[in-house]
Amino acid sequence: MTVERIDEESPLLTNETNNYTDHIQKRRRTTPTPLPKVQISILMLLQICEPITSQSIYPYINQLISELDITGGDERKVGYYAGLIESLFFVTEAMTVFQWSRASDHVGRKPILLIGLAGSMISMLLFGLSKTFWALVIRCHAGK
C-alpha cells in the first residue's frame, strides 16, 4: 500500500479535470475581455457629485449661519451650528448606505444611481434657497 504525499505543491484536481481547466484557461488568455471604458467613465463622472455636494458648503457656511440669524446674534454659536449642519450629511450617509445597497441589489444599480443623483440635486437646490435652520438641515438628505 503506497501512501501519496500531499503537500502545497501537489495538484488538487485529477488529470482529466486539469486538461479541461487548462483548455479553458488557454481560451480565456487568447480572448481578453476589454475594459468597459465608457461605463467606467460615466460612473466616475457620477461619483464627482458626492464630494462636490459634501464639501461645497465649507467656504460659506459660517457666514450663511451668521446672516440667517440662527444663533440670535451670538457669534460663539456659529461654529456649533455650522458643524451640526456639516456633520448631518455624513451621519445620514452612514445611516442609509446599507439600505441603498440593499435596494440596489433588488432594483438595480442604474435606477438607484439616478435616484441618488436626483435627490442630491433637489436637496442642494433646497439648501441654497433655505432661510431657516431647519431648512438648512435639508442638506442632510443629500447624504442619503
From TrEMBL:
Membrane topology classification:
Multi-pass membrane protein
Supply the InterPro entries for this chain: MFS, MFS_dom, MFS_trans_sf
Q: Known Gene3D superfamilies for this protein?
A: MFS general substrate transporter like domains
Domain Major facilitator superfamily (MFS) profile: start-end pairs: 39-144
Please note every region of biased composition (Polar residues). 12-22
Where do the TM regions start and end? Answer: 78-100, 112-138
Where in the cell is the protein located?
Answer: Membrane
**Protein name per its UniProtKB record:** Major facilitator superfamily (MFS) profile domain-containing protein
